[in-house]
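Dissemination and training. As part of the outreach component of the grant, students in the summer workshop were shown how a complex can be specified as a set of sequence lines and then modelled as a single object. The example used during the hands-on session is reproduced here so that future cohorts can follow it. Participants entered these lines:
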Amino acid sequence: MNPTYFLLLIYIIVCTLIITYWAAKHSGTTKQYYIASGTLTGYQNGMAISGDFISAASFLGVVGMIALRGYDGFLYSIGFLVSYNVVLFLVSEPVHRLGKFSLGDVVCSRFPGQKMRLIMAICTFIISLLYMIPQLVASGFLLRLLLDLNYSVSVLLIGTIMTIYVVVGGMIATSWVQIIKTVLLMSGTFLLTLIVLSNFNWDLTLFLNKVEEGTPLGEQFFLPGHLFNIPIEFLSLQLSLVLGTAGLPHILMRLFTVRNTYEVRKSLISATWIIGLFYFMTLILGFGTVALLGYEALIAKDPTGNLAAPLLAKVVGGDFLLAFVSAVAFTTIVAVVSGLAISATIAFSHDIFFHILKKGKTTEREQVRSARITAFIIGLLSTLFALRLESINVTSLVSMTFTVAASSVFPVLVLTIYWKRFTSVGAITAIVSGILASFIFVVLGPYVMNPSDGLFKTEAIFSLYNPGIVTIPIGFLGGILGSLLSKRIKQKETDFNSFYIKAQSGYSSRGES
Amino acid sequence: MAQEQLQKEKRVIDYEKVQSSPQFKQFLQRKRKFIIPMVIFFMIFYFLLPIFTSYTTFLNTSAIGDISWTWIFAFAQFIMVWTLSSIYVRKAASFDKEADEIIRDQLK
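and obtained this result:
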């Protein structure tokens, strides 16, 4: 391994471990461990949200996709950005007002009960793990490509570091790792963008001409139609992406780490700026790769295009910049998987251990201890899974996570917050039908049933890779039918009234702490 | 302070009354009138982009020099997200004020 890589990597690991050590001293209570006592400022939280959200798949994958496919690669990222408007307008403030630590808290503030809590916890667990495993698998491949480590060593390294952050430092350490990652990622991409543009003397026309020369698509590179050939498939994917973010537990969890709704809004608006500017820069990096490196040279190194950004860094900035970009990719991966690990941890230790197994009667110390044990087990399990699932299709799992989130958590949240006739039975049927539909359609779809490389070597029964356009309505329908068909189990009007007033005005949640 | 706390605990809040009070109803209506059209607007504005690029080609014509409408529309999405979120933040501050008034007038 190149010594520059090694030093930078060690430097980052040491710095973040120091933060973790400091965080550990402030993680004695559940409030500190789960939500950093709600003490992050809006800007800090916005950076942490971006750190949670921009995965290595975005950083490396989107740059590569733009380099290979041009316009369509860029279109892909816009859906992610627009999804933040859905979060801001529809769910952010009510979720902050209703929840304490977890999504279970939010739904149970309207439909109290252990069954409800258990289902929300399981749902959070499924979504977080579904997302975590492909991230770990992808990280294994990336580190192998970037640092010449072998797959198992890479996964073990990332898995161990993630587990240490979460077990020792809880939400405080996770947040700060994510903030550092955002700073590194944004400054790294900004630097790279400037260098790329300066290579063309800041002349955009020259730049675009070079891009045209570098790609086999020629002028077509700047026009849509090179990635998504089936329109309905593309629309279905976009629908899952736009609605999915508002159902991702590890993102929604970040609405609890600030003091009040004012800070919630500030977090989300800073996140949209950071994420938007980031995608904007990936466009220039993608173009730059084509202009400076060329299509042929890129696919010769890596046919998936994932190495576009690092290769570009090497061309324009030599070994040092390459090492820096690799370090950024490394931090990106660890920050994302830590966020996922802590959201799965909270679902288990707060909802299942504290509320269901202990019936809400244990000490703070006991809870934090159980959280740490849970975090350790989750870290261990996900690392083991990732080690075994080397050959799994990463893209399919990532898009499936968004589909599951958009068809289960999102409908339940929207109906819980806004629909008066919604019942607890409806909430359960929404979750169950959304999750089941997502799994069934993915299994029947071409990711699993594929004559060439599927698990079952047959023609797919359902033709879409991304079933969101079918499963999201199924989730909503499940909730609506479940509510209309179930008898209202003594759900008194006053219950909804007090819930609704709390959700809309923040009465009783504001003022506390 | 302690006395206030005591008074608060003694009173049972009639949520139904609050819910049906004109003050709360107006507050909700204002909120709805803002949020619903906005959400409909940005969902349509966003989905027109993939719909147009996948089913039609008329956006492929040039707008300014070499830059085609597809790019203008794509960049407009960024502007849209940033503008709408700023509008929301500004608007929500006034909703917060109203909510505080309701809490002060009816719930304390």
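The longest strand of chain B covers residues 62-64. Students were then asked to discuss how this feature might be tested experimentally.
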